[in-house]
Amino acid sequence: MKKELKPYVALCDAITKLFYPNVEVVMHDLEAKKLVHIVNAFSKRRVGDAMISELKDLDGIKENWVGPYDKTSSDGKRLKAVSIIVRDMEEKPIGMICINYNTEPIETLFESLKGFLHVNDSAPKPSVLFSQSWREHTEETIEKYLSSKNIALSGLSSDDKKELVIFLESEGIFAIRNVVGYICSVLNVSKATIYNWLKVVRG
């Protein structure tokens, strides 16, 4: 290995340490056209192997990196790769570091999450069960009714309150234990009044 490439060994090792086990980092000596360092070699290549692709006109290379690009490993793994050109003090290309990331574990996880989070395939959640608290849920439902009618709570007539109670019944609010007393305090009506209104829809 050229001495100018030796400082990059620690960099290769650190990248692999961070993204292990899904990354392979390979360093080539461009002059010798050989692989001089490899970490987490899932491509089965070894130090001393010849470069897979031969680069021509090395001095004509202007880019400092190539990629990211897709490739396939020798055992069929789908990889996302980037190649970095290492230059000496005179800007001459002397090495190339290839970072090969195995994307299959992420793709598998993504497909699982996409299926799990597919909202259109999910049944509507029972809002009473999933609300932070029954009181908060009840207040949100009352606010929903008031917003639809563009009216304030203080401006509700007796008929409006009756309509609101019927609306709350349709939203399942009265399935909550002890909610009747809370509704009475909010609307300033008696329990008897609430139950009489509920009889209208319950029969």
TrEMBL record:
Secretion signal span: none
InterPro entries for the chain: DauR-like, DauR-like_HTH, YheO
A Pfam family assignment: HTH_22
Recorded coiled-coil stretches: none
PANTHER family membership: TRANSCRIPTIONAL REGULATOR DAUR
Descriptive protein name: PAS domain-containing protein
Species per Swiss-Prot/TrEMBL record: Sulfurospirillum diekertiae
Origin organism lineage: Bacteria, Pseudomonadati, Campylobacterota, Epsilonproteobacteria, Campylobacterales
